[in-house]
């Protein structure tokens, strides 16, 4: 069955991404059952996990590793490989087998003009958009969305509370973010298309890292692209600009995996983790790495042991 015909079969067949309906928690069907890759998928030769170049994704990669190892799967983690523009091609080419991903960001990467925002609909849209050989497994409880923040002082000076307010000061403000944000829909492109925002300058920094946060503190940038699970937002009393037109879609954590290794053992292990890890817990794990300077692998392994994933 190809990707174009899969959606029509979802309602009647147990597959990688079931037809999802919203519920109070925004999470459905995390049992990990079914297979979109047929019966040939096997993890007997091991699974290589890649991660992007920011704290949270590295923590998630090691959490995936702990869950899979506990299920008897041999794993290798290749952390800090780079941005999506690097890790996604690495998955397609077979250099890695599995990535921790984010629903909305992945969909806008694959389909820049996509307007889908609800988590269940996005899961189905991802199933259609992914190239042959790749699939998304059921999404988890935890969510981490992009956000655009300003200092409290900047918010007061310019009267900023929403992304729409930025357009009142076109040509006056500087945005700081990773280089890719300049061409992403959830970035400069979408801010202009959806809200009519035009910045005075774009400064290419890092992805939710010390460079962009340092620039925001110093006033070198007025607006910064960060992630909602970043504990520095609350610690610094920064203001997250609200998104009344839903430019930023749902961003539940979702495993992106090659069909070749998506066997029932792998699927069940990752589904169990997804059904356990909450947004608050993920935020705390980020804090331990960023603030307490703990190693991402150690933080992930401690969580796995404390929550019964490993012994």
TrEMBL record:
The keyword Protein transport does not apply. Keywords: Signal. Residues 1-24 form the signal peptide. Residues 47-305 form the ABC-type glycine betaine transport system substrate-binding domain. InterPro entries: ABC_Gly_betaine_transp_sub-bd. It comes from the Bacteria. Coiled coil: none annotated. Pfam families: OpuAC. This is ABC transporter substrate-binding protein. The lineage of its organism: Bacteria, Bacillati, Actinomycetota, Actinomycetes, Kitasatosporales.
